[in-house]
Amino acid sequence: MSKKVTQPPQPGPAPTILETPSLAPSTFTDGLPLPKLLIFDLDYTLWPFWTDTHVVPPVKGKDNNTRVVDRINESFTFYPAIPPLLHACALASLPIALASRTSAPDLALQILKILHIPPASSYVTSAPSPIPSSSTSTTSLAPPSPTPSSASTTTLTGPPVPTTPTTNPPSPNQISKAKTNLLSKPPPSSPATSPRRALDFFAHTAIYPGDKKSHMAKLQRSSGVPYEEMLFFDDERRNANVESLGVTFWLVADGVTREEVDRGVREWRRRRGLKAGKGTVAAGK
User: What is the pTM of this model?
Assistant: First the structure.
């Protein structure tokens, strides 16, 4: 008899951030419409500090520019959920913008230029994938044929016994998959394999003191996106006045997370009567 010996699982291609539920908002891949522009405040929305209060310039980058330190050696960086979220927005081709009323706009821009987002590949890992059954090895456990004795004229014959395990050649499906994986690998200079300036993720910026309605107006002019197609995340309730323009406002308590983005997107959909399956999208669900 023979026994199939299955080879151990081999690492498969790493999933993208959009394919990793713990990193990307689920609304980015559920097939329903998305706003045409996501807008984020900075202080206590993307990072846990007030730029004009807590940071003492000058600032410089540390640890491959994943954080900055100021003149008194205080360290500043984004909330943990922000780097993979920025990659998820880019992979979903979803434009994002900044709207900050800080009184230190030049310092905020400097920090955004210094801070670099690690490559997307650093947030996901390869998962083992089983080898198709066509690639399993077969080892024969049949006993060897007895050696004829000089006292006997009877010859015992049987099926040939392989001396070493045999391995089937790769199937056409495996070869095709290998070619696809090679072709789908990003070039060395892509954001998937190289750090990228945080500022470069944002298609539009409005960073200056003033009423947030003026920020929305500037972003509307620069992007051409109607107010009704905008979703704005901010930590201050007073900035909900942008809703008088038609912008959907979503209040965050202490930093943006993928869950907060999902809640904001679902509220934007609910206000437009967009449906998930047979039911209307419920706010924050």
Answer: 0.72
